[in-house]
Structures are given as C-alpha cells and as structure tokens.
Design goal:
Elements lengths: L19 H14 L3 H16 L4 H13 L5 H20 L3 H4 L2 H5 L2 E4 L1 H8 L5 E4 L6 H10 L4 E5 L5 H11 L5 E4 L4 H9 L3 E4 L10 E6 L2 E6 L1 H8 L3 E10 L4 E6 L11 H16 L15 E2 L3 E2 L2 H4 L2 H5 L1 H18 L1
Helix pairs in contact: 2-4
Length: about 350
C-alpha cells in the first residue's frame, strides 16, 4: 500500500491571487509570533469580553454544547464559562505562528508538562502508543511536544477548502518530523504506521456519524462516540495514553497533561470500552473546561438516526429547555421517517 502522507513541499499554486488573504493572515501571525507572550495575552484580555457578547453562530454552538454537557449550570454560569473559553481561544490563536516561525529551541521553552511519569511509563512498555488527545484550543502543541521529545509520530487530518491553510498547518505539525495522513487514507494507514515504529496522535471525540459510532454518555448527554479506538489498540498492539493540551494563563506557557495509560484495554465489551474513552476525556477536561473546543458540533448526531440543527437548537426558547426540545424533535423526526 502506498504511503498516503501529506506532501509538505511548497507548491507554486499557493501563490494564486485567491490566497492573498490567507497569506496576509499568515503574515500577521508571523508578527505576533515575535511579540512577547504578555503582549498577545493583553490583546486577548482587552477584546474577549466585548466579543463574548456577540450573538454569532460560534457562540450559539458553544452554548448548546455547554447546556447539554452541564445541565445544572445557570445561564449566567454558562455565559461566564463561554467568556473564559473565548479568552483562552484568542490567546492560543494569536500565538499560532510560534511553532511555524520560531526556532525549535524557543518552542521547546514554551512547554510545561504535567504527568510526565505516565508518558515515561507508557514508553517503557516498548509498544506503539496511541495518544488519545481530545480537541482543545492548544491541541497542536501537544502533538508538537511529542515530536520534539524524539517520538516518531503520525496523525490524521481533514483537508479544508484552503490549500494554503492546510500547507501552513501541516508544515507546522511536521516541524519535528513525522507523518500526517488525510482522513480518507483510513485506519489501515495508521495500523501500517504503528507496525513501522510510529506512534499515533488520535482525536477521539469527533462526531463521524452513527455508522462509525455508538451512542454513549459524554458528560450529561449521549454522544455519537467513535468505536475505532479499541480496534486500533487491538490490531495495532497499541497502548492508549490519554493526554490534553492547555494554555496556562498564569505562566503563559503551553501545558501538556498526561494521564495513566489504559490497562486491560480493550476488553470484550465494546460499549464499556467506548464509555471508558469518554470518561477519560471527561476527567481531562474537568477543571479545564475553558480549554476544550466547545464550538464543535459535538452532539450533532442524535440517537434514532437524525441530526440536530445547532442553529435551531440555539434559539432562546429552545436553549432554555434544550432537553425537552430535543425530546420533542426526536419524536417529530421519527414520525416523519415513518410517514415516508
């Protein structure tokens, strides 16, 4: 099987005029990369509050997810959490040029590590490691930390419509070597890489629809949860090591958090294995809620084979009683399917 890794070489077509604004954005990131971190953070501290008041789709998605995940929170608490989440996001985004433009030595100086003993323990097992890293604002930094530590890494990505953006992001991800596969390359590419001595950086909390998933609790709500993790672990003889990436606002550094690897995994109970994956993510996010990417369509796929519209669910009258709205919507969707 041919190695379908991302080609990181620069292509002349990236200079097409339609990418002008992409290059302008990259130029701004280059300037920001050389500013002291306190300056970038000051920009975020000045702008996040007014930006958090804007009623945009980004916010509406985040509030739907937060309401489902934490139903006991008041509306004020959700708004405060969203504002904190936005502040962290702005700080990380303003620093996105650092891995691309700054030196390897400088980049290594921006890391702090929590739970390094768990990483060393997993490495000592002399097996491929599947680093289970849920979506966080600073997610690319934990992948870079692994490569910078001398581990041969591979991961999968989903191409965007912007070729320059893809080149920039993947060139940054490959700063310390490794392989990036397009998601369409499939699990076989990952299994081959594991067999060839690579470790894999895996995002476990994606919603790829009902076919690839089982509906299992994720915080307080059922989520279409991937079933591929225990399968890769079994067929690739891989150790599952949970990790999370944060921006430490007090120290202005990127914090990589490791947890204990999964022992006795997978079991003979797929649902139990998937729930264990979700519980591990919850444990990593707990106390670090502002670091998680709540703007993703986390709960889009719904039990019963229908898809939630975030735009509709986020309307004030629906958001207030979101669980009741989803219950009624499910009945409506099932009735529509029966009629057809």
């Amino acid at each position: 099987m041919a190695d379908q890794k991302f080609d990181e070489r620069f292509k002349l077509r990236y200079l097409h005029p339609r990418f002008l604004f992409s290059w302008l954005g990259i130029a701004i990131l280059a300037i920001l990369a050389y500013l002291p971190s306190r300056c970038r953070d000051a920009i975020a501290d000045l702008t996040y509050k007014p930006l958090s008041k804007l009623n945009v789709g980004f916010k509406r998605k985040a509030l739907v997810n937060l309401r489902l995940a934490f139903p006991d929170m008041t509306s004020q608490q959700l708004e405060e959490l969203y504002a904190d989440f936005l502040r962290v996001g702005i700080k990380v985004t303003l620093g996105y040029g650092i891995p691309f433009f700054r030196s390897r030595e400088y980049l290594k100086s921006t890391y702090i590590v929590t739970g390094e003993e768990f990483l060393k323990e997993a490495v000592s097992l002399n097996r491929p490691i599947l680093f289970m890293a849920p979506h966080a604002w600073a997610i690319d930094h934990c992948g870079l930390y692994l490569s910078a530590s001398g581990l041969n890494m591979c991961t999968m990505m989903h191409s965007s419509k912007n070729q320059v953006y893809d080149w920039f992001m993947n060139k940054m991800r490959l700063k310390f070597g490794g392989k990036v596969y397009e998601r369409g390359a499939g699990v076989r590419s990952v299994l081959k890489a594991l067999k060839d001595g690579y470790h894999c950086f895996f995002l476990p909390d994606q919603d790829l629809g009902e076919k690839s998933s089982r509906f299992v609790k994720f915080f307080a709500e059922d989520k279409a949860s991937l079933i591929v993790l225990p399968k890769i672990s079994q067929f690739g003889n891989a150790v599952i090591l949970p990790m999370f990436s944060c921006y430490n606002e007090e120290r202005r550094k990127y914090e990589v958090v490791f947890d204990h690897y999964f022992d006795n995994y997978p079991s003979d109970d797929l649902m139990k294995d998937v729930r264990r994956m979700n519980a591990s993510i919850e444990h990593l996010v707990e106390g670090r809620e502002k670091q998680y990417m709540w703007f993703l369509q986390i709960y889009k796929s719904r039990p019963g084979g229908w898809t939630m519209s975030y735009a509709e669910a986020s309307k004030k009258e629906n958001l207030r009683n979101l669980k009741e709205y989803l219950k009624n919507k499910k009945v409506e969707e099932l009735s529509r399917k029966d009629r057809s």
